[in-house]
Amino acid sequence: MRRNQYEEIRDRVLAYFTQAHIIITEVEKAAVEVADFGLEDFEQVGLSLITYVNTERCCAKELVLFPGQTCPEHLHPSIGGYPGKEETFRVRYGKVYLYVDGEPTEEIRGHVPENGSQYYTAGKEIILYPGQQFTLTPNTRHWFQAGEEGAVVSEFSTTSYDEADIFTDVRIKRIPSIEG
Amino acid sequence: MRRNQYEEIRDRVLAYFTQAHIIITEVEKAAVEVADFGLEDFEQVGLSLITYVNTERCCAKELVLFPGQTCPEHLHPSIGGYPGKEETFRVRYGKVYLYVDGEPTEEIRGHVPENGSQYYTAGKEIILYPGQQFTLTPNTRHWFQAGEEGAVVSEFSTTSYDEADIFTDVRIKRIPSIEG
Q: What is the DSSP letter of A103?
C-alpha cells in the first residue's frame, strides 16, 4: 500500500472512531494499522485497527470495517505451549455479520466477497448489533463483514500473534507494508 | 446494601454509560455490579461495573466511578499456578487519579478517603484523561479515584478472581450482598 493511500484510509478510520465516540490519543492516531492482506482490494477485503495493549498475557484492540468490508477467513492456531488466541468481539457501532465454523446458516444476510470467494468456508452466521458480543475459541475458522454503515468493534483477547494467523486464502499476507 | 439503594445507584451508573456513549444490553443493565466493599459509605468508597467477559484466560469490564469516589487499595495476588491478574485501565470519560506502588508523588491531586485513610499506602500518582491508559502488573498495590465529573474506565485483563483480591483495609469484603 502506498503512503498516500494509507493516509486517506487512516483519516476515514479516525472518522469512524469519532462517530462511535471512541477517544484515542494522537500517538494511537499515528499508529492506525491498515491491513489489505496483500490483496490490494481494500474496500472489499480489509481491516483497520488500533492495538491498545498486547502483552504476553492479554490484548485489546479497536477494529474498524468500512461499509460491506470483510475481514477474510482465518483462525488462530496453537503455537507450541500457547493454546491459540481466544477473542471476544463486541460491536460498538454499526452491524457485523460474523461467520464461524459450525452448522451453516441456510440463507446468510452478508455476502461472500467475490475476491477469493472460494476461500470462505465457515458459514454459521451470527449477527451482532451495538452492545452485542461473541467469544471465539482458538482454532475456530471465522470471517466477518460490516453492514452498510461500516462497523467499530472492540476486541478483547489473549495475546495476539497476528503473524501466526492462518488464512484460508493462500494468497494472503497478514502483515501490511507501506511503500513510498 | 438494600435493593432500593442498589437500584438507585444502578440507574446513575447507566446514566454514565449513556454519557460516555457506551452501549450495553438489557441483560447487562440488569447485572450491573455495585460494590461498597462492606464499608457502607458508597459515595466515598465504592465501584460499579459491568463484566463483558471473564473466561479462564482473559477478561474485560467497564467500570464507573461517581465524582470523587474511590476504589480502595488492593492487589491481585498469584494463586497457585496463576501469576495474578494483569490489568490495563483505559479512561473513556472523566478523569482518574491512579495510585500505585513506587516512588510517592510529593503533592497528590486526588485525596485519600477519610474512611480508612490509614489503609492507603501506594502513592505514585498517575493521572489519566480520556483515551489514556495504564497497565498494572500483578501483585502491585493500587487504588484509584474519579475526578469531579466521575469516570468511566475500560478494563482489559487476564482472568478476574475478584474474591481473591487482597485489600489493604482489613475491614473490606469485596463481594457485595444485596438484602431485601
A: S
